[in-house]
Amino acid sequence: MIPSLKRLQVSRKGGFTLIELLVVIAIIAILAG
After folding, report:
1. Which of 9, 10, 18, 32 is 20 to 30 A removed from 1 (C-alpha atoms)?
2. DSSP string covering 1-33, please?
3. Which residues contact 24 (CB under 8 A, 6 or more apart)?
C-alpha cells in the first residue's frame, strides 16, 4: 500500500493538472465561505 502511494506521488510529481487545480480552488473557496 505504501509503495503504491509513493509511486503515485512520483507519477504525479510533474505538476497539477487543470482538474486538480480546479478542485483545490473549489476547496479553498468553500473554506473561505
Report:
1. 18
2. -HHHHHHHHHHTTT---HHHHHHHHHHHHHHH-
3. 16
